Amino acid sequence: TVNGSLIDGYISGATGGLYDVNDLNTAIETFVTDSLGKYQLFTPLAEVPDVYTIKFSGGTDIATGQTVNTELTSTSTKEKALTSEEVTLNVTPITSLVTKVLTKSTGTIDATALESSIAVITNVFNITEDDLEKDFIEEGNANVTKIVTQLETTTKSLSAAIDDSNITEDVILDSIVNQIVETSNNNEVVDFSNST
Question: Model-level pTM?
Answer without folding.
Answer: 0.88
